[in-house]
# Entry
Amino acid sequence: MRKTSPAPSLGQDARMKPQPETNMPVKVAKSTPDADRVWAKLAIELGPLLVFFGTNAVAGIYAGTAAFAELNVPPGAPPLWKPIGTRQ
# Structure
């Protein structure tokens, strides 16, 4: 059976390091190009998911999946399959 650890001794408190100050001034960042890039990246990453969930709620899972897949294809990318009836 395990015993609980004993309470800290008085000598142990003397060896503890002092904690840092908590009332340090906080710098508030103004809008910078880096902050604008963060918002753009967030919109690019979350945009297709929001479109998927919205389309899924309105038109169903197949339409939601199609909308999500369409938004994740880079513009100008070659098609993954040949349309039926075409020759190359």
About this structure: The chain has three helices and no strands.
